[in-house]
């Protein structure tokens, strides 16, 4: 279900609101896939919100099994952001990308 929600945001060109590590975040999904360990992940540009690292904006790799309360917003995504490269090397299998 979480992967489908992330893919929906990507396909619609909309931002995704997600609760992650106890913080509310708004992100732009750039790619969804699986790590070599089999974890479902998404490569995102965080537009705003909290972060355990203290970085409130920028590139993040989020594990979908650790994400809570995903919702596609009405806010347009600006993906692809500068610095994005197709074929994310951190994903063993990509199922959707900008």
Task: Write up what this structure looks like.
With 98 residues, this protein is mostly beta strands. It has a single domain, classed as SH3 type barrels (Roll), CATH 2.30.30. It is 11% helix and 51% strand. It has 1 helix and 6 strands, in the order H-E-E-E-E-E-E. It has one helix at 2-12, and strands spanning 14-20, 23-34, 40-49, 58-63, 67-76, 93-97. Strands 1, 2, 3, 4, 5 and 6 form a 6-stranded antiparallel β-sheet that branches. A hairpin with an 8-residue loop joins strand 3 (40-49) and strand 4 (58-63).
Major β-sheet, in short? 6 strands, antiparallel
Helix content: 10-25%
**Cα shape:** globular
DSSP strand tally: 6
The Rg value, from CA coordinates, equals: 12 Å
The CATH architecture name reads: Roll
Average of the residue pLDDT scores: 95
Report the β-strand fraction as a percent range.
over 45%
Please write the string of helix (H) and strand (E) elements: HEEEEEE
Outline the low-pLDDT stretches: none
Q: Indicate how many domains the architecture comprises.
A: 1
Q: Termini distance?
A: 20 Å
Name of the top-level CATH class: Mainly Beta
CATH topology (fold) name: SH3 type barrels
Task: Give the helix tally.
Answer: 1
Given helix and strand content, the structural type is mainly beta
